[in-house]
């Protein structure tokens, strides 16, 4: 794959500053309420990520944070958009439920989006990934910990794109975006051990040239990345993953997001892609 020239495509993203970020409850294995979050550092690191994206020529919209929603910084979970249609989120845990309301309000402002409210539990881009140039445009969807399998069928009806269900089996990788990422419009990288044996076979069939990550990469949140097709933005801890994407012809760009990892997220969790 490395001999292919990787070309970036300008993207539009949605982010939410961690002005009220804290870890005050535990809803994933990474959250430790005994360790105090450095709120100032979290905001500085978030700003660095935003500046990195805008510096690469991308547009970043900012969602206003709400004080009662400390996890709102993980804006990828709030919805999933394809071709101007937005499939809204419905969070599994009540602590995050109102985040979906804030995201819906963003999409319902103006007439740029067709917003569809969900009936089933799903956590937006946390468990959905879109590859517009693979097989005519397909959605990869995770289940097993947060998103209900029924949401996959619902998303397919809402978006009019084939949805491939993938079963997550390791609690450490509770969202699809901790175990798999789109490197461009047709290629992915993933950690096989996060998926059931059957789902591993599905991925191997669909993406025989995928960049395969190992458990150390996944634990470093190296798969929780954002790529524009050339530049792969990933956290500083994921050095080995950076080498792997470079070997595949992409350009790794490392950003320190140590504070956001305390809540169980990294680059991708903090960035929702807006696909108009």
The helical percent reads: 10-25%
**Average residue-wise pLDDT:** 92
Low-confidence stretches: none
Domain count: the total is 1
How many strands in all? 15
Reading off the top of the CATH hierarchy, the class is best stated as Alpha Beta
CATH superfamily membership: L-arginine/glycine Amidinotransferase, Chain A
Strand percentage: 15-25%
**Backbone shape:** globular
Briefly note the structural class of the backbone. alpha/beta
Protein name: Amidinotransferase
Notes on the protein architecture:
It comes from Actinoplanes aureus. This is Amidinotransferase. With 276 residues, the protein is of the alpha/beta class. It has a single domain, classed as 5-stranded Propeller (L-arginine/glycine Amidinotransferase, Chain A), CATH 3.75.10. Helices cover 25% and strands 20% of the residues. It contains seven helices and 15 strands. It has a three-stranded mixed beta sheet, covered by helices on one side. It has a three-stranded mixed beta sheet with strand order 3-4-5, with helices on both faces. Strands 6-7-8 form a three-stranded mixed beta sheet, sandwiched between helices. Strand 7, helix 3 and strand 8 (163-167) form a beta-alpha-beta unit.
């Amino acid at each position: 794959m490395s001999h292919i020239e990787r070309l970036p495509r300008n993207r539009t993203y949605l982010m939410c500053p961690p002005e009220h970020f804290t870890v005050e409850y535990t809803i994933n294995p990474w959250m430790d309420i005994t360790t105090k979050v450095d709120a100032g550092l979290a905001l500085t690191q978030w700003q660095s990520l935003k500046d990195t994206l805008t510096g690469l020529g991308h547009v970043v919209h900012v969602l206003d944070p709400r004080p009662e929603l400390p996890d709102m910084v993980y804006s990828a979970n709030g919805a999933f958009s394809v071709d101007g249609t937005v499939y809204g989120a419905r969070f599994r845990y009540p602590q995050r439920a109102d985040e979906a309301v804030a995201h819906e309000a963003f999409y319902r402002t103006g007439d740029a989006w067709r917003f569809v409210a969900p009936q089933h539990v799903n956590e937006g881009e946390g468990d959905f990934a879109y590859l517009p140039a693979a097989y005519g445009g397909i959605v990869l969807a995770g289940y097993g910990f947060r998103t209900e399998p029924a949401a996959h069928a619902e998303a397919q009806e809402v978006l009019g794109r084939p949805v491939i269900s993938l079963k997550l089996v390791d609690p450490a990788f509770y969202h699809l975006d901790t175990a798999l990422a789109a490197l461009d419009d047709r290629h992915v990288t993933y950690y096989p051990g996060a998926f059931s044996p059957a789902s591993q076979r599905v991925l191997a069939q669909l993406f025989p040239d995928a960049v395969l990550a190992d458990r150390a990469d996944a634990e470093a949140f190296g798969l929780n990345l954002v790529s524009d097709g050339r530049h792969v933005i990933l956290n500083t801890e994921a050095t080995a993953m950076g080498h792997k994407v470079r070997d595949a012809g992409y350009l790794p760009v490392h950003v320190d997001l140590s504070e956001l990892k305390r809540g169980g997220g990294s680059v991708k969790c903090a960035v929702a892609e807006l696909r108009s």
